[in-house]
Task: inverse folding
């Protein structure tokens, strides 16, 4: 069982509280890590990394409308661009002056944005199955998946639903799938298991404004910063062509492809933990 984090809440610009998890020793001399979850994921996805790397400090957050963070009354407040300011607030509140960002999916895009708005804070970036261009069909599938609540009567049903919707994860055992389900659903007042996010978080993407953003300038802002990039070989979001192009334009990037895995690796897979450890030891 991973160690419990220190818990706190940071208020965003709309006055909503955002949950922050803070693992490890704040006095550890190594650069702290900032865990940026996927679009509809939470800080709990980084618990196993924090446990493995302890006592190194790792801070993560539940974005607005996800997990233990409060939901917004207006879906426009979920525009991904608002999350950049939220992360800045969290970094200031937790004293993260210089750090290594580890971003999965949307979290990786937000890490790219940090290279624009607070470049001096970024010592390194890990991009987990994300790049400056997304496969349209895969993005549409994920938006549909995240945009609908899927109430389940019990945990076996929740596991079965996740196995059906995203079968290409690296999870192999029933215990791993159950742990993933427990990080995806939470029990509601009606006794059913509901997705642990506000389905309205996808509306900015459905209305097109956020998806129209050209992300290549954000990725190019990472060129002075060491980058470790992971891709699942059957990822529905990050194509092999985009991944190859990322390698061509970034002068200090290391890339690792995980065979037979889709979107997104958990970062607990042995080839990725080794690559991550090597990267962290050299940044």
Result:
């Amino acid at each position: 069982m991973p160690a419990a984090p220190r818990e706190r809440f940071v208020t965003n610009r709309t006055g909503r509280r955002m949950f922050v998890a803070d693992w490890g020793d704040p006095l550890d001399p190594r650069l702290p890590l900032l865990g940026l979850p996927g679009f509809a994921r939470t800080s709990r996805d980084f618990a196993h990394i924090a446990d493995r790397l302890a006592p190194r400090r790792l801070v993560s957050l539940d974005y607005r409308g996800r997990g233990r963070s409060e939901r917004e009354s207006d879906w426009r407040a979920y525009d991904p661009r608002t999350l950049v300011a939220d992360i800045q607030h969290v970094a200031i509140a937790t004293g993260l002056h210089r750090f290594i960002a580890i971003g999965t999916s949307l979290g990786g895009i937000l890490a790219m944005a940090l290279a624009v708005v607070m470049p001096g804070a970024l010592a390194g970036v890990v991009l987990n199955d994300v790049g400056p261009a997304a496969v349209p069909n895969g993005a549409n599938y994920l938006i549909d998946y995240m945009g609908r609540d899927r109430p389940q009567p019990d945990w076996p049903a929740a596991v079965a639903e996740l196995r059906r919707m995203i079968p290409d994860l690296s999870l192999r055992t029933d215990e791993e799938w159950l742990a993933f389900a427990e990080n995806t659903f939470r029990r509601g007042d009606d006794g059913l298991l509901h997705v642990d996010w506000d389905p309205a978080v996808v509306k900015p993407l459905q209305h097109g404004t956020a998806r129209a953003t050209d992300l290549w300038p954000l990725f190019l802002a990472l060129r002075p910063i060491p980058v470790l990039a992971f891709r699942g070989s059957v990822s529905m979001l990050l194509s092999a062509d985009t991944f190859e192009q990322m390698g061509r334009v970034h002068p200090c990037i290391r890339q690792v492809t995980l065979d037979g895995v889709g979107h997104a690796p958990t970062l607990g897979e042995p080839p990725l933990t080794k690559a991550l450890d090597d990267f962290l030891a050299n940044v």
Notes: The beta strands are 6-11, 17-23, 33-36, 58-61, 99-104, 122-128, 185-187, 193-195, 227-232, 253-258. The chain is about 35% helix and 20% strand.
